[in-house]
Design brief:
PH-domain like; 33% strand; 174 residues; 7 strands; seven-stranded antiparallel sheet; globular; 5 helices; alpha+beta
């Protein structure tokens, strides 16, 4: 009898944690990002802010706003990358420094996250877009997009890969 009561109490104590883990992610503040390539009507390397709301990914930049519906996204992938700290004209001119000093400056790099989205337009055409953003923000944007209908071929870091426990169970039986 005491064991049954203890089991019930344990189940009830884990219920709030389960409810929090299954809830959809809260909308995040706009994320400062750069569109590297692929967004229609936006020049390459355009800076702006990404938001996910109303089932759409919005990229607001100085001239206008571009939107992609989450349900049209066939694949959302995140990654890690780095870029030179000294960029632009100064970075290019530094390569001509004496004794390879410019090449040494190119070794200093800053980390960033990438968000790659493959989606279909209204005519069924396949498109892709790549965004860069501060470290740790791409995974949050990906989770928000998936919660609003986007698909991903790579499971999120928060989601365990499906079938991995089954594979481990079959190995234990051998």
């Amino acid at each position: 009898m005491l064991k049954a009561i203890g089991a019930i109490l344990i189940c009830l104590s884990t219920l709030p944690a389960f409810a929090q883990s299954t809830a959809s992610p809260r909308p995040q503040a706009p994320v400062k990002s750069v569109d590297l390539v692929g967004l229609a009507g936006v020049k390459e390397h355009t800076g702006g802010k990404l938001t996910v709301e109303g089932g759409k990914l919005r990229f607001a930049h100085s001239k206008s706003t571009s939107e992609i519906a989450a349900i049209t996204m066939e694949d959302v992938v995140t990654g890690n990358d780095s870029q030179r700290v000294v960029r632009g004209t100064l970075g290019t001119l530094s390569m001509f420094g004496p004794y390879g000093s410019g090449r040494f400056l190119s070794l200093f790099r800053s980390k960033l996250d990438t968000l790659t989205i493959q989606y279909r337009d209204t005519d069924g055409g396949l498109h892709g877009v790549i965004f860069t953003m501060p470290v740790g923000t791409a995974e949050l944007v990906k989770q928000e997009l998936i919660a609003q209908g986007a698909r991903s071929s790579v499971p999120s870091a928060a989601e365990p890969a499906q079938g991995s426990s089954k594979a481990g169970a079959t190995e234990e039986k051998r």
